[in-house]
Design goal:
Layout: H1 2-10, H2 13-23, E1 28-33, E2 38-44, H3 54-69, E3 73-75, H4 84-93, E4 97-98, E5 116-118
Parallel strand pairs: 2-3
Antiparallel strand pairs: 1-2, 3-5, 4-5
């Protein structure tokens, strides 16, 4: 894992996305970062390769990147019809929390939609 950590320190989020889309043909990722956070807008794994842990592997690499730059990841889960519970379970397993109640962080919220976030630990 040391070589991956070195790669992260020398590369950008966009390079990571390009690398992941190359490594997993058909996967679509859309994310960007600013000075305070990483926004993950879409991670789409083609149906024919779902259930193989690819989404989890991708999330781990994006979380490792977030740790390397010490920025939270924010997302606005918008599932396909009938997939809301499954999407929520996926992100919860990936250590994301709903940005509500005792977990609310107004700096990571959106006035237009529900957000979830992941904050890397030191």
């Amino acid at each position: 894992m040391d070589s991956f950590r070195i790669w992260l320190e020398e590369n950008s989020l966009q390079q990571l996305i390009n690398n992941l889309e190359s490594q997993y043909p058909g996967v679509q990722l859309w994310a960007w970062e600013n000075s305070s956070r990483i926004e993950l807008a879409m991670i789409k794994v083609p149906k024919e390769i779902q259930g193989q842990g690819i989404g989890s592997q991708i999330m781990k690499m994006i979380k490792d990147y977030a740790k390397s730059v010490q920025k939270p990841i924010v997302l606005r889960p918008e599932p396909e019809k009938g997939k809301k519970a499954a999407l929520n379970r996926f992100y919860t397993r990936q250590d994301f929390v709903n940005n509500t109640g005792k977990n609310i962080d107004y700096s990571l919220s959106s006035p237009t939609s529900k957000t979830m976030y992941y904050k890397p630990s030191n």
